[in-house]
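Input chain follows. Return structure tokens only.
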Amino acid sequence: MQKDQISGKRIIYTRLMKMLMILSVALTCGLVLFLVIYVLVKGIPNITWELLSTKPSYLSGSIGILPDILNTIYMIIATLLFVIPLGVGAAIYLTEYAQNKKIVAVIEYAAETLSGIPSIIYGLVGMLFFCQFLNMQTSLLAGACTLVIMNLPTIMRTTQESLKTVPQSYREGAFGLGAGKWRVIRTVVLPGCVDGIITGCILTVGRILGESAALLFTAGFAHSIHNMIDGLGSAGASLTVALYVYAKEQGEFGVAFAIAAILMILTLFINLLATQVGRYFKKRRTI
């Protein structure tokens, strides 16, 4: 009799927990779908070729986001040019070369702490250090340098985890054939974990696209068109900053929703691309 009561309580408990988990999944998926559908429905009708291919004209009152698109591209390129060598190089050193495990643990803890700091604090530090102390002024380059510091822990940690997935026997086999340390890393270790590195880089692009608070302090609000060299030395608004300006300062909610829809589509595309690239290199590694 007592065993039947215990088994009955377990069944009730199991069913209750199952219902709670299903409810949690349904609530999460429902919120995500509502957000995506709401933004796309409100934004896509406002996306026009004129909006995408022109710059704002205060004389005619027309609005264009071409400068903001170019500024975003410039910052993505500049950020990746700095953050990928630094992040991947730091991860290789910490995983393959560093001997003092205590120092490695401290650096990893510092990287995890940096990844949890609010982005607006990065913006404040970037404004004081890059814009004022280094005299970069408010510019896309100052914004890109700030984004480098923000995304460096992400690239470093994802690369470290990817390097750790390469079996130690691969390294030992290469060493047994007489290969040096750097040759083993370049020809055996890195090709074996390239999928994780590329996935981390693509996800970093997604974070750069969605950043606004740090760029408000460092990159500015300008909507002028420049080439990349001149643009990096000038102030400019990214798509996220432009969204804030049009929604908060000018009350152009149609344009703001159009930019939000563009960012949503780009984010979904980048996440899908990261997934597909990871699967492609994983299959290629197992063949």
